[in-house]
Design goal:
about 425 residues, mainly alpha, Glycosyltransferase, three-stranded antiparallel β-sheet, 16 helices, about 10% strand, globular
Length: about 425
């Protein structure tokens, strides 16, 4: 990596880190508005379709063009999101590996303590959910444990165990596995194929959520030498492989539920799925899963980037660059850095660098935070500057520090 890019990346990380220190771990989220505006929600979920749709569109427009003002009008309060805390923890882990600063190490343990104090024990095992209601095919109340949130938080605890050697962190990871196995619902396809639900309340077949659970079971099960964890995780991975399309991709929903938005995928969910499949294949030493992940990665490389004068632009959809989303930008950096680590592919790390060059040059606000998105309208482009904590800042803090750590390792190897 050139000195110019090194300086850009380190400066960007320092500026984001300063912003996080000043603003703390609570913040706004793209989905908090709907949860904290009950009058709006009542109208939107009313039986009058015309009124519901009209109000929803107006509200969505206000949320897009003036998200901070809209939250002020509706009295939306900042919240602490467990997933955001876990992502910040991952960012600090890689920051500490690079800097060896005691303050970074202390912050890691502070974030871990917050998560342990705020875990959910209503269901089997240990889990976490989102601090807002959300509407999918069913209504999911605030705090409902999620396999995605719990697995991301679990990734932090596994890596903290590997860094510190403290068994209490591995115990948390084991508790998350118990939640995945016994707290979630399972769709059984056959004796070798299952799909985990998103939460204990649904029977969704969502590929990225299922693969988050599968990967965590296989990885922790291998550390603990727990055959049940590993074998069940592999059965969940089989669900994805059995539904992989000829071009290597996966739809968002499983085949039996792929009717609301059929054949749709986006940058960050695709990135999650490739990362999880690759990790499962490598940890389990399963060539069949590794081959499946490589095929998916090749599809991704061919469909999710646009060339620019500065770096590579991470497209949101295969068919559309816009809206450019900070969540997708972060995932693009993370995925390609991880593919370099798992496959020792220099091209993947170079791609991560070129993505970071564009993102850091175009999406970072003057105060060090990152804009939520860049949208294209007739005749002009507009950055939506609101700094969503979990959606943007936490993911980017993790992404930049992961990249910097891997580049440092490359320099010293």
């Amino acid at each position: 990596m050139s000195d110019k890019i090194t300086k850009l990346t380190i400066n960007s990380e320092n500026n984001l880190h300063r912003w996080l220190q000043e603003n703390g771990i609570s913040g706004f989220d793209p989905f908090d508005l709907y949860s904290q505006a009950p009058r709006f929600r009542k109208i939107v979920y009313s039986h009058n379709f015309i009124v519901s749709r009209s109000v929803s569109r107006l509200f969505n427009a206000a949320n897009l063009f003036a998200p901070a003002l809209t939250r002020k009008i509706f009295g939306v309060k900042k919240t602490v999101n467990a997933k955001g805390v876990g992502l910040l923890g991952l960012g600090y882990l890689y920051r500490y590996k690079r800097t060896k600063e005691k303050s970074d190490k202390s912050r890691i343990h502070e974030l871990a303590e917050w998560l342990m104090k705020n875990k959910d024990l209503k269901y089997p095992g240990i889990s976490w959910g989102y601090p807002f209601d959300w509407q999918s095919r069913i209504f999911i109340p605030e705090g409902t444990p999620s396999v995605v949130v719990s697995s991301v938080v679990g990734d932090f605890f596994v890596k903290l165990f590997e860094l510190s050697g403290e068994e209490k962190y591995l115990k948390v990871a084991e508790g998350i596995c118990e939640f995945i196995l016994n707290g979630l619902n399972q769709t059984r396809i056959d004796e070798n194929t299952i799909c985990f639900s998103y939460t204990p309340l649904d029977n969704f077949q969502v590929h990225n959520a299922n693969l988050f659970g599968a990967e965590f079971l296989v990885r922790v099960g291998t550390i603990l030498n727990n055959r049940e964890f590993v074998s069940t995780g592999l059965k969940a991975a089989n669900f994805a492989i059995s539904q992989q399309l000829n071009d290597g991709s996966l739809n968002y929903w499983g085949d039996d539920q792929n009717d609301t938005q059929p054949n749709k995928n986006d940058h960050y969910h695709v990135g999650f799925e490739i990362r999880m499949l690759t990790s499962i294949g490598k940890v389990a030493a399963d060539d069949r899963i590794i081959s499946s992940a490589e095929k998916y990665y090749n599809y991704y490389l061919s469909n999710f980037f646009q060339d620019s004068q500065i770096g590579k632009i991470p497209k949101m959809y295969p068919y559309s660059t816009f809206p450019l989303d900070i969540h997708a930008c972060a995932e693009a950096i993370i995925l390609n850095t991880e593919m370099h680590r798992l496959h020792e592919n220099e091209n993947s790390l170079n791609l991560a660098v070129t993505i970071a060059e564009w993102v850091l040059s175009n999406m970072q606000n003057k105060d060090g935070s990152f804009a939520a998105s860049r949208n294209k309208f007739p005749g002009f482009l507009m950055n939506i500057r609101i700094p969503y904590l979990r959606w943007g800042q936490a993911w980017m803090f993790y992404a930049i520090n992961l990249l910097l750590y891997n580049l440092t390792e490359e320099t010293h190897s």
